[in-house]
Amino acid sequence: MNQTAQTISTSFIQALHELRVNKLRTFLSLLGITIGIFCIIAVLTVLESMENNIQTRMSSLGSDVLYISRWPWTADNSGEYKWWEYWRRPSMTVDELRTVENKVNGVQYATLCVKSNLRVKYLDVELSSIGGYAVTSDFDRIQNIEISSGRYLSSAELEGGNDAVVLGSQVYADLFGTVNAIGKSVSFLGRKYTVVGVMKKVGQNMAGFDFDNGLIFSYYAAANVTDVRSLDVDPVLMVKAAAGHNVSDVKDEVEGALRQERKVRPGRQSNFSINQLSQISERLQSVFGLIDMIGGVIGFFSLLVGGFGIANIMFVTVKERTKIIGLKKAIGAKRATILTEFLIEAITLCIIGGMIGIVIVLLLSLLLTYGADFAVTLSFKNFFLGLFISVIVGVLSGIIPAWAASRLNPVDAIRTT
Questions:
Q1: Which family does it belong to (predicted)?
Q2: Beta carbons of 111 and 135 less than 8 angstroms apart
């Protein structure tokens, strides 16, 4: 046991000596290992962080919400997106909303939302391309609207078509700066609306709602001044399944009720699309898989090059220390001891290269987390995976030079010049 520990410590010291004496040669050889480990661990870390962020956003929006409109989020089974057919479909209306509320069991909330681009004005400040969300009751319960100041729209204001509005954080900042906006009036769609609340900054969510650069007001207020059934807009009917009810069952019931409401004949395709966030996550999973494969291929070839570099270092090291090997064997050193010594030295070099790659990943993750507001976390699993791969590369690249060193004849090795 003591002899093994001594062999390991000696080999580790020899590896550090190689780094110190032959800095450039060792650096160039370790570069492949560093790049390979960096590629593999960086891709895994970023993908895991993206998946965690997506899961967090999906849980906040709810995976039990159906988004029903003219347009599907993804192509059909044939892989073709038939936009010319979807464009001619009738828009969702209040009639469909009431049908779902009254005829479908297992619905906790249902709401209707029409999104349009607005020009919003306050005094002499005017903003363009602002997302206007004209909604009915319960929209805030499905989309988890958070208010930073003031309040959200009441049911009376929403159902009565009152001229009240809730501003997004960026819209509020651009229009009012730091001035309190509650009670003041903004103009859009040819009318004045009283600001009753300002939303917290949340960013764009997976369902496509950008509340920071938008505002929320009554669907019926919008219907009074614009054609909400126009083909230029796409009202979305959102349905949230109640707790304890299977989303697939609710989806089937909703589809049946809407087909009946729209008098779609049996065997005919529905003239609406029912979308779920799971469709996006499934597409993203396939994209993540492709990125993971590309990163793995790049990492594999980098590790392959790095492994040849480490093997080259070890062959040169064996050549430089041939006499020392001969002397060790002459005084009784076993083949296993020599083999272990050079093998551990190769593993140590690979671990050093791998650690450099892991440290770079860690630094980049901190930069993305605190500099780009994108949470990236290097997990212990990926950390140890990087070390494990480094050890495997060290074994594979060092085994042949170590075997060659252990097989040297002590007499010939001592005579080597």
A1: Belongs to the ABC-4 integral membrane protein family.
A2: yes
Counting other chains too, the contacts that 187-190 makes at CB distance below 8 Å and 24 or more residues apart are 187/120, 187/121, 187/122, 188/118, 188/119, 188/120, 188/121, 188/130, 188/132, 188/215, 189/118, 189/132, 189/222, 189/225, 189/226, 190/225
Q: How far is CA 108 from CA 141, 341, 345, in A?
A: 10, 68, 64
CB atoms within 10 A of CB 87: 11
Asked if 110 contacts 172 with a C-beta cutoff of 8 angstroms, the reply is no
**Highest mean pLDDT, choosing among 2-11, 62-71, 96-105, 294-303:** 96-105
- Separation CA 304–CA 358 (nearest Å): 18
Cα R_g (the chain), whole angstroms: 33
Phi, psi angles (nearest 5°) of residue 196:
-110, -15
SS3 198: strand
pTM confidence score:
0.66
Give, as one character, the DSSP assignment of residue 373. S
Residue-level length of the chain: 417
Confidence band (pLDDT; 50, 70, 90) for 7?
low
- Domain-by-domain residue ranges, the chain? 2-57+281-415, 65-275
- pLDDT at residue 180 is higher than 80: yes
Separation CA 345–CA 371 (nearest Å): 38
